[in-house]
Specification:
8 helices, alpha+beta, 2 domains, Nuclear Transport Factor 2, Chain: A
């Protein structure tokens, strides 16, 4: 089967751009087939666990990719598209934390968060992390997911003697609705 598929894509000449474009077209078509089969499986009663096992992922990952959550408040399909540019936004919040720019972070908080988290409290929380695990060394790439009205990012953080995850929730207006530093690397 692989040889058959490859023969439909590989060029005998050096037109690699055309070969790549054909391969991407096949990949898109295959993704469409998988999506249709998953929808049919769900309509016929397959659980997300069964679908996740077949895809080689968790049931949650399968649902997040192929599910269509319904908003219990309205009965309408929920927006599952993450806020554009949110990975860069999360990275900039982490950079501000690491640089001690507490005011920059608190300015981004939504009103509820701003009422509950002062610059001094934020600085004290970061100092506690440094006291437990040493100096901040760097961050990984943020993972992004949409959950209801929020886009949630999980950014791996590395300190001298410990790993953490910065879980930052953003509203659609790009304000921070939640800021948590979790011990260990989370997904």
């Amino acid at each position: 089967m692989d040889a058959f598929l490859a023969s439909r894509v590989l060029a005998k000449d050096d037109d690699w751009a055309d070969s790549i474009a054909r391969a991407v077209g096949m990949q898109t078509a295959a993704d469409d087939v998988v999506r249709a089969v998953v929808q049919q499986a769900r309509q016929n009663g397959a659980t997300w666990q069964v679908i996740g096992d077949a895809l080689g992922v968790s049931r949650q990952a399968a649902f997040q990719r192929y599910g269509k959550p319904i908003d219990p408040r309205t009965g309408e399909p929920m927006n599952t598209t993450p806020l554009p540019g949110v990975a860069e936004l999360a990275a900039s919040v982490v950079a501000d934390l690491a640089a001690g720019h507490w005011a920059r972070v608190t300015e981004r908080l939504d009103p509820t968060m701003r009422d509950g988290l002062s610059e001094d409290a934020l600085a004290a929380a970061w100092a506690q992390l440094v006291g437990l695990s040493g100096a901040f060394e760097g961050r990984g790439e943020p993972e992004v997911a949409r959950a209801g009205d929020l886009t949630i990012t999980n950014t791996p953080l590395a300190f001298e003697a410990g790993d953490y995850t910065a879980r930052i929730s953003f509203r659609d207006d790009r304000t921070i609705a939640g800021l948590h530093i979790l011990e260990g690397q989370k997904s």
